[in-house]
Design brief:
- The structure is a single chain.
- The protein is α/β, with parallel strands linked by helices and 311 residues long.
- The protein has helices spanning 48-54, 107-120, 137-149, 161-169, 185-191, 207-218, 239-247, 252-259, 261-267, and strands at 3-7, 10-15, 30-33, 35-40, 56-61, 76-79, 83-85, 101-103, 124-128, 153-157, 174-175, 195-197, 222-224, 283-286, 302-305, 308-309.
- The longest helix is centred in the middle third of the chain and has 14 residues, at 107-120.
- It has a single domain (35-274), classed as Metal-dependent hydrolases (TIM Barrel, Alpha-Beta Barrel), CATH 3.20.20.140.
- The protein has 9 helices and 16 strands.
- A 5-stranded parallel sheet has the order 9-10-11-12-13, with helices on both faces.
- Helix content is 28%, strand content 21%.
- It binds zinc ion.
- Zinc ion (ZN) binds next to loops.
- Residues 39, 41, 62-63, 228, 231 line the site of zinc ion.
Length: 311
């Protein structure tokens, strides 16, 4: 048990705090960093205010129209803007008709697209690796190289085994979803040292998907909590996603890590992910122990956003 002193939205001290300051008694409860959702679509479903109040401090928006990059958000947002895709490629002929894809037909146009997105404020690049029409190897290689030069990670939508393998070989950094088709040993090895955003409940968390995330984790991929919010509809910390992660074999501590510290490190959000001096006071008070109860994160009793009580 310890005191946590917050000033001007930041944690300034953990330990024995001067009793004269205004205080909030959290005895018997568990204090953890607020959650990072590594896969959302906040233009598709604009619920950022609700997310912030419910304990999500930051989110990674993995496809939205270009205009969204200029818009302020109630949560810290790392955004891709539109996916870079092939002409008529995913998702521009399906759910992503309204500007969710930026179509390019060669490597030069793709590099221009990466630079344009970065200039408009994108801090991550999203590409689909699906069945045709799909970007060719030279184009994907060029996207990855330019994104990395600009300090952006490349997230890939790849649900099949061959697609996931292809994406890793071409240098993609993070699977936007756990693939749903059983993954080969070769694909698992290719994703070692890379990352995967769970989004298990978005695809029904079937046995093959749960096995894939368990095997990716054993192979050395970093697992990040993410919901595909917009396509899923829980505007907060999603108990169904936490339960599916648990069902895949992750214990409560591993789930807490995947929802807080790991994504803060992975995405470069240094003020989040820990309860320690210098970090933003984006904190959750939980009734149950999140290191033993995999669902404890789902319903925080109190949410602090930058030191202010939000719920
Ligand atoms: Zn998505």
């Amino acid at each position: 048990m310890a005191d946590v002193e917050v000033r001007d939205g930041r944690i300034v001290q953990v330990g024995d705090v001067d009793a004269s300051v205004e205080s909030f008694d959290a005895r018997g409860r568990f204090l953890v960093p607020a959650v990072i959702d590594s896969h959302v679509h906040l233009t598709y479903w604009p619920v950022a205010d609700e997310l912030a109040r419910s304990g999500v401090a930051a989110a990674v928006d993995l496809a939205a129209p270009m205009s969204s990059l200029a818009e302020p958000s109630a949560v810290r947002l790392l955004a891709s803007g539109p996916m870079i895709t092939a002409p008529s490629g995913y998702p521009v002929t399906s759910w992503g008709r309204g500007g969710y894809g930026l179509e390019v037909s060669n490597a030069g146009a793709a590099v221009d697209a990466v630079e344009l997105l970065h200039a408009r404020g994108a801090r991550v690049v999203k590409i689909p690796v699906t069945a045709a029409p799909v970007l060719d190897d030279a184009t994907i290689t060029a996207i990855v190289a330019r994104a990395h030069e600009l300090g952006m990670r490349v997230a890939v939508h790849a649900l099949g085994d061959a697609e996931a393998l292809r994406a890793a070989r071409l240098g993609a950094d993070v699977l936007a979803h756990t693939p749903v088709e059983p993954l080969s040993d070769e694909t698992l090895a290719a994703w070692s040292g890379r990352a995967v955003i769970a989004t298990l409940s978005a695809f029904g968390a079937d046995a093959a998907t749960l096995t894939n995330i368990a095997r990716l984790r054993s192979a050395g991929a970093t697992v990040l909590y993410g919901t595909d919010l917009g396509n899923t509809r829980t505007p907060g910390i999603d108990a169904a996603e936490l339960a599916a992660m648990h069902e895949s074999g992750m214990d409560a501590s591993a789930i807490l890590e995947a929802a807080t510290h790991a994504p803060a490190l992975y995405w470069g959000l240094p003020e989040l992910g820990d309860v320690e001096p210098g970090k933003a006071a984006c904190l959750l008070l939980l009734a149950r122990d999140p290191t033993t109860d995999p669902l404890a994160l789902a319903d925080p009793e109190v949410v602090f956003v930058d030191g202010e009580r939000a719920s």
